[in-house]
Amino acid sequence: MLTAVEIEAKAKELKKRGYPVISLAIGEPDFEVHQNIKEAINRAILENKTYYPDPKGLIELREAIAEYETNRKGIDISPDEVLVTAGGKPIIFYTIFYFCKQDDEIILFEPYYLVYPYWCKALNIKYKVIKLNEDGTIPRDELFKVLSPKTRLLIINYPNNPQGSLMNKENLDLLLEVLEKFPRIYILSDEVYSELVYEDKHISIFTYNKNRVILLESFSKTFCMTGLRLGYGIFPREFVKDLTTMNSNFITGPSTPIQYGGITALRDNEVKKYVQYMREEFKKRRDFLYDELKEKISFKPKGAFYYFVKVPYDGLEFCNRALNEKYLAITPGILFGESFKNYVRISFANSMENLKEGIRRFKSLL
Q: Domains of the chain (ranges plus CATH)?
């Protein structure tokens, strides 16, 4: 089954051949990388900072990450707890591989990011799936039915892709209760959209139990650095040495010049203003699409940059028709779980002009 990136590649190929394709498929900001980040990367290259990286990540970047997350989470975070990777995906693989053995089980929550079940299957780790309520709330009774002494890892994603829901107090209390009652369970908290919140505020479970929660973050969404591949995990300190060895043997480490760009992304005041500007623009686009789709949906996303919409028939067939007949690329809901065969994901990480035309084409298929 195609991933969103592969759908995007197909759309680009059609566009190259002259077709008027609009892509609302991929989760990639349409804004450029900030000039100050580009200059930091270029400067690192010109200063010959192009040698093998520290497999844990540059100490200067880990210090910047620790400072950034300490300020956001309100707890002390040490650079020694940070592992820098080429994008956020390696953290998913490392966590599943390192923490889970063959008899262990993982719990995923639909809709989920498709990389989670991919690595469970690839590593032959059993997983169970619980469907979230439309507002992102975890059904308590269903969760406790599937928890067992074999449960080793829960993977959560807030703000949620593709739902746009946020972590709420009900979920927070429930998950902290799980950690208290099941002392061998860890939680991987994927928070790569944490800076893209339009209502309420982002709550991180990492703040409340960093000894049992692994934080996954990325520079891709917040700083538009999708192609530069930079992310990080924050782990309990006792595991970082082994995970650093894994990172060294798997990718050596992220590109050294890109890491200098990451330092600027986290510390530069002009970049902070740029992120705020992007957040405001995404909110405008979200509100525009809500007015267009409100008869088809019952939940307005509070974070990330997607709408998850039910369609009249199979979502994969709908997406194929959209691309082949209307030259509109969107993502089938089946990628986010078996419960969503009749859904599609629409990204509003695109210009208002493209959103207006794209939603017109979308509605013509309903």
A: 4-27+271-364 (3.90.1150.10), 36-268 (3.40.640.10)
